[in-house]
Amino acid sequence: MKALMGYLAGLMFGLGLAISGMTDPARVLGFLDIAGEWDPTLIFVLGGAVVTTFIGYRLVLRRSSPLFGDAFQLPTKRELDGRLLGGATLFGIGWGLSGYCPGPAIASIAGLTAPLAAMLLAMIGGWWLARRV
């Protein structure tokens, strides 16, 4: 049941990305183009995600345990370190150059293009490198 719930959550996330247009890298790059044809769509999608998460966490964490698990798995680390800052920097550079972040990139695999393939290969290389460092 836990795996099914994970699949359904991923499916909802992917559908949300597709419906909102966030699988289109031009939409993301349009948001980053503040000096040109700025597209504010991304800020509304991010705002909706923040509000949903804010409310959702407060409702869910009132429970003593998750519906399909033994205990909540929440992050415990609170300090900033070089690995976190370096990873966030590389993520931002990759997102700004390609217009894709991991979720939309994976959701867009059906329409694979050369830039998307390059981004996915770079992402896999980054995961591999992060495990080695």
TrEMBL record:
Q: Where are the transmembrane segments?
A: 41-61, 82-100, 106-130
This protein's record includes keyword Transmembrane helix:
yes
Q: Name one Pfam family in it.
A: DUF6691
Assigned keywords, A-Z:
Membrane, Transmembrane, Transmembrane helix
InterPro entries xref list: DUF6691
Name recorded for this polypeptide: YeeE/YedE family protein
